[in-house]
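Fold it.
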Amino acid sequence: MASEKWFRTSALASLSVFVTAAAPAVAADQTGSVGIEDIVVTARRTEENIQTTPVAVTALSTEMIKQAQVGDVAGLQRTAPSLSIATGAPGGSGFVYISIRGMPALNPGVANDPSVATYVDGVYIPRPSQGSADLIDLQRVEVLRGPQGTLFGRNTTGGALNIVTVNPTGDFEGQFRIQGGNYDYRNIDAVLNVPVVGDELAARFVYDFVDHDGYARNVTSNSELKDRNSHYARAKLRWAPAGSNWSATLSGDYNIIKDHGQFVGLAGVNPGASAAIGAINAATTLAAYLHNNAHWYNAYGVPFSTNPPVGSNYGFLTAGSRSAYNRLEAYGGNLTIDGEIGSVTVKSISAYRYSNAIGLNELDGTPAQILAAESAYKSDQYSQELQLSGELGDRFSYILGGYYSTESGRESSVAQTFGSFTPAAPAPNFGFSLNYGTVKNISVGLFGQGYYRLTDTIRLTGGVRWTWDKREVVLLNRTNLA
């Protein structure tokens, strides 16, 4: 059976307006000292002290991240309330899914937009496959809760995770760290800052390497599971001419992650399920196959039983029929230009992001070919954002912005369901299913927010946004390919 579907949304427009009274911001979590650390945030797209920022934001400085022993994006959920970060499936081991206030984004596909946006140096990261880099050489991390459409390029309802990396400086400096552990764990971090022309032109280079053996093993394929090999590199070049209020920062990064997938083990088989799956008799055909299979015994150390005792723990060995794998590659670059024209501050962010992920997950943990899925996701995005900000008089300040992005991508999945238990006896009426799709996304947004200071402690805040989205999707679905 084959079917093709084509969808197109010609124009989607949305408008949101809100007015709020300003209130003192809640300070970031304490680092153990008596005083409150002065933290500069850009939650409202301008630099200001967190103590005077009237938004729901948690900010973490570099020192706070170190003291909390946060080494990757997933570890941030220990530092901010209402923040939850999951890594791994669906999609692959390197995927990152961020949820704020219970609003998750668990679909890695190109045709779905997350409810929580991720920004790195002001650049919108569109896909979960592009947010898995380790947290190295960061200036700060900001967790913003609630809708952010009147301040950021992309409109989101759940919030935003704003990551700011360290800019090059005029000092020659660097750092180097090596860590090791069991399972042949190795981690290398390196940072090098090089002044090219005094304080005017400087470069900064960052590299991170992680490698460790698997914590589990598939005895059928004799392959490790839950291992990791990753490389991450970033380079930034900043030019700030002397005597000028303009600067330009060029940045590029590359990330690759490889592993052999997650650990999946079978807990048991329901012998009464034969009616539910038709021609396959779980009590006889499947049970007999597993009972006589040497790989099952090598993995679990006991004969197969359709009624395993309560509390059975087979350890970190499995007997999956196929070798799982994941490979994720992501890279991009951006150019940020900012300066002043009279009393107006101007900022331009031009960016390109690319990601390509492919993986196979063996989902039943047995030598029988019951359930396995292979998926692939690819995304190319170009984006441009322009911001204007300033003050009118002593009481009113504002920020205006425009955003444009175009993204093309594709996604595919091949699932094997109830394949043959033995080479000579394939299960009838079961086989493979294929899903393949190409996606084209275009988004245009205009946004603005203003602040009017009534008194020294009370401010009125108003914001507005206009959005136009276009999405073209071509889907191909096929089943029973076996």
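The domain at 2-265+319-479 is CATH 2.40.170.20 (Maltoporin; Chain A).
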